[in-house]
Amino acid sequence: MVGFYRGISYLLYPGSMAMLGLGYIHLKNPVALRVWLVFSCGMVILPLLALALFMKIGKVSDVFVYHREQRHGLYALGVVFSVMSTLLIFQEDALSAMVWSACNTAVLLLLFVINYMGYKASAHMAGVSGLLAWVLCLPRDYVTVISVFFLAVLVYTARRGLSAHSHFELILGFCLGLFVTFAIACFLLTYHGICCSFI
Question: What is the pTM of this model?
Answer without folding.
Answer: 0.90
